[in-house]
UniProtKB/TrEMBL annotation:
Keywords: Cytoplasm. PANTHER family: NUCLEOID-ASSOCIATED PROTEIN YEJK, PTHR38772. Belongs to the YejK family. This is Nucleoid-associated protein YejK. Its main location: cytoplasm. It holds the Pfam family NA37. The keyword Cytoplasm applies. The lineage of its organism: Bacteria, Pseudomonadati, Pseudomonadota, Gammaproteobacteria, Oceanospirillales. It is found in: Cytoplasm, Nucleoid. The keyword Cytoplasm applies. NCBIfam families: PRK00378.1 (NF001557).
Amino acid sequence: MPILHSIVHRIDKPSDEQPAALQLAEAEPADSDAMDSLLTTVNDRYNTKPKAWGHFAETGSVPFAGWLMAYVENESDFVTFSHRAAEGFTALIDDQLSVGGYLLFAHYQQGDVQYLTMALLHQRHGVGISDALEAVAAPQLNLGQLTLAARINLTQWKSDTPSQQYLSFIKDRGGKQLAERFGEWLGCQEGVDATSETRTLLKAFSDYVESEDLAEEQTREKTDALIEYASDQARRGEPITLDELSELVDEQQPKAFYDYIRHQDYGLSPEIPPDKRTLNQFRRFAGRAGGVSISFDSHLLGSGVEYDEERDRLIIKKVPTQLRDQIKRRQE
């Protein structure tokens, strides 16, 4: 993950009553393994957080998008861009947070894609061992407490046909008001609801598998392919692409699942930001005993399928059509 440019500024906020003071770095730091490690950790943590996904409402309609565009178009350098953004960000959080921190900006590349990450990092008190083998105070970054951060896929933003999800920012439920203010300051127009889109995608997949009347083993293989791909995209902080997913679901007919979604009109976007919690709920329960074989998607438990623990029985609310027809013919 080559870092093209990076810089860190400091925001001091002694108390609620005192205004925040910004200490700007005048130049980028030298390349170091420490900065590489820091950015990797920040990105890993960012990928696990709930996020809002979207795009700039209109380039130039908010200052941040204008500052970033000036940098991307080489009208200003990285340090100038970071100074403008840091000053605007400090004014934003002055009346929202009681503590300051370190503001990280990093422009880096992964494969053929370039990103910009912006994150406020808080510091905590720790303990270390000195060269004299004595316990000493050792301040350290609290990377587990990441509440304000954003990432822009610069390559998508600059492309001729940009997606609607090239911009994301952390949207923790505990800091809803601050997250909303941050999104407004970024100029983010949210494109899709990650939870709703992921849930709809999984519903479309369940419908597709049922329509194909696949064997249990084939269904399990396709489910595993979907979950593995979607979970990997979530870990990387990247959206699910329906074209890629369709190829993984059926290598023999790589367009089959994609065409099914389009023909059924589920209203899904070509790119879907994965919601990890929803994905984790989508697993298959399966069991066989006494000549009975049962298999169903775990997200149906509590809705389409209920478990009566006291009587140790399953209640299936919607019997598969093929199974119902077989039973009726048997009873005739």
